[in-house]
Amino acid sequence: MGRMVPAHTPAAAPPGTPKPGLRERKKIQTRQAIRRAAFRLFAERGYDATPVDRIAQAAEVSLSTVFRYFPAKEDIVLTGEYDALLDCGIRARPPGEPIAETLRHVTVGIMHDISAADRDELLQRIRLIRDVPAVRGRTAELTARHIDIISTALAERTGRPADDLRIRVISAAALAALQEALLRWAEDCQAASPEALIHRSMDVLARGLTL
After folding, report:
1. How many helices (H) and strands (E) does the chain have?
2. Which residues of 111-136 are buried (b: 16+ CB within 10 A; e: fewer)?
3. What is the pLDDT of residue 12?
4. 157-210: pLDDT as tens digits
5. Is the N or C terminus of the chain more exposed, i.e. has fewer CB atoms within 10 Å?
6. Is 50 exceeded by the pLDDT of residue 54?
7. Buried b (16+ CB within 10 A) or exposed e, 12-25
8. What ranges does the record list as Low complexity composition bias (predicted)?
């Protein structure tokens, strides 16, 4: 497939962004423990054969704790820690930078920043979204949330309202380009890196509706 590209500078939170407090860090750690236990069990037993109480047991938390963080089993797959990275990454880019380059830099930067273990989890997550009807059926909510995040951050950069049609269309198109790149990576993760595929998808987006 397409040529491999060098790693780009990872997306970073804007200077001066406060770090999460102890309580928030503990919440993040609990979410991650539940998610990792769930993905391990999904790999061993399959999604449908893994009840939520078994996930709670493997994560060493109560069943009520699982449901406090993830109201439905599908949310364990669909909820990640990437929302803040996406929002902060867009806001941190130079004000005069073209929107296409901002979105390219931030999405490639997030992928570059993901550890090998978390990358394996992301790959499993994408395949579950693709293959499990119950999970796939909930992706509209995830997509809408991410479009809102991108639109709000772009609106702040450009001075346009977040519900501006151009802002919403660009946000939805960028998200679709990212999703298609990640789905292609999940189909054959040896053919090209996710960063390379994101670059190619963003190239298409930057050129507009041309072939």
Report:
1. 11, 0
2. bbbbeeebeebbebbbbbbeebeebe
3. 42
4. 889 999 999 999 999 999 999 999 999 999 988 888 899 999 999 999 888 877
5. C
6. yes
7. eeeeeeeeeeeeee
8. 1-11
Only one residue has tokens 């909930």, namely 138
Q: What is the C-alpha to C-alpha distance for residues 85 and 175, in angstroms, rounded to an integer?
A: 14
The candidate with the shortest Cα–Cα distance to 111, out of 80, 139, 132, is 80
Q: Which residues contact 25 (CB under 8 A, 6 or more apart)?
A: none
Contact assessment for residue 13 and residue 106, using Cβ atoms and an 8 Å cutoff? no
The pLDDT value given to residue 8 = 34
Mean of all residue pLDDT scores within the chain: 86
What are the structural domains of the chain? 22-207 (1.10.357.10)
